[in-house]
Amino acid sequence: MRAKSYHWQPEKVPFIYPVALRENIESVPSVTGVYFFYGESDTMPLYIGKSVNLRSRLLSHLRNPDEAKLLRQTRYIRYQQTSGEIGALLLEAQLIKQLKPLFNKKLRRVRQLHTLKMDEAGISVVSLSQQEIGYSENIYGLFKNRYSAQEALKEIADRHQLCYGLLGIEKIPAGRACFRHALRKCSGACCGVITAEAHNAQLLEALQTLKVVCWPWPGRIALQEGDKYHVIDHWAWLGEADTLEQAKALTQISGGYDIDSYKILCKPLLSGNYGIIPLA
């Protein structure tokens, strides 16, 4: 007789509309900011989120049956208004790393990143400390582990018919065509159909969408958002200030360098849509 197999499934918490929490957010305005769900602890939130419309976002939480477990444990909700969306994104990312709320799975701090580095020897997957973001040149992509970086390189190779052998993904005898060339998935740099220089040029062009931008200013800058100033140094957020004088006094990196700050700040800083003031 075949034994029966049982698969564990997480307990489904029944959804009950949280009337008390609805009353708690009656006075929350439709502004941009960060919000906090608290349980029994007054200092450690259960969940941290952000929105360009706090009131609308919080109401959507209360109507979501998938969040029944969070809502059941929540005793009250607080919020903090920010000067704009950039400030909300930065504050949310920083506080999640600092406080590690139970229901936040993303934006946790990653101690070791990996990247694709291009030099005279070719392409390789290398480890990258948080502090190297903004200082290192010729690096492409920020990945949370070596496997993700290698998979990204494979995807580039498949899309552009690049050779796994020359990319170091697999070993092939020198001068011999790789197996993918027979399948017409490799342009033939492994067997002389195209030169290694042409192959590297194709690779470099394909990598441009992943290029990690070096910090283009000599030091700290202030990015103006609304009536506030975000102080940034090599993609690390040092904090928010009300005046330029206060901004100049911000020199310590409280939240540290991390992949999320880079992703949040890179596009707006290079877009030309915000006032940027170099700080002495």
UniProtKB/TrEMBL annotation:
Alphabetical list of PANTHER family matching this protein: EXCINUCLEASE CHO, UVRC/OXIDOREDUCTASE
Alphabetically ordered keywords of this record: DNA damage, DNA excision, DNA repair, Excision nuclease, Hydrolase, SOS response
Protein's GO biological process: nucleotide-excision repair; SOS response
UniProt key word Hydrolase: yes
Residue ranges occupied by any GIY-YIG domain in the UniProt entry: 30-105
Protein name: Excinuclease cho
CDD domains in alphabetical order: GIY-YIG_UvrC_Cho (cd10434)
SMART domains, per the entry: GIYc
Gene this protein is translated from: cho
GO MF: hydrolase activity; nuclease activity
One CC-aspect GO term: excinuclease repair complex
